[in-house]
Design goal:
CATH architecture: 3-Layer(aba) Sandwich
Number of domains: 1
Number of helices: 4
Largest sheet: 3 strands, parallel
Distance between the termini: 28 Å
Order of helices and strands: HEHEHEH
Number of strands: 3
Radius of gyration: 14 Å
Oligomer: single chain
CATH class: Alpha Beta
């Protein structure tokens, strides 16, 4: 993973260039870093720009609330649950 500062700079460059920002992030730490970057660059108006989080799997409840508050768009792949769901359950519990 790139450093948090580099990720934030990539988000800033894409956003200032008029692109819809989309980041791949799986797991709570990756999603947290992604949300930090989105919030730092777009602030509380992030929802206007519809930043995307690709995958966004295995999250703590506070991150789900933060995604909603910022208005980020989650793009899930249900195939992950189908292919890896039992492994997730073994590793993380119910």
């Amino acid at each position: 993973m790139k450093s948090e500062e580099a990720i934030r700079e990539q988000v800033r460059l894409a956003h200032s260039g008029g692109w819809q920002v989309a980041l791949h992030a799986i797991g709570d730490r990756a999603v947290e870093v992604t949300l930090d970057a989105i919030e730092a660059v777009m602030g509380q108006e992030a929802g206007r720009f519809r930043p995307r989080i690709e995958h966004a799997g295995v999250l703590r409840p506070d991150l789900i609330h933060r995604i909603r508050r910022l208005g980020a768009v989650v793009v899930t792949q249900l195939r992950f649950v189908f292919e890896s769901g039992d492994g997730y359950r073994q590793a993380l519990g119910k």
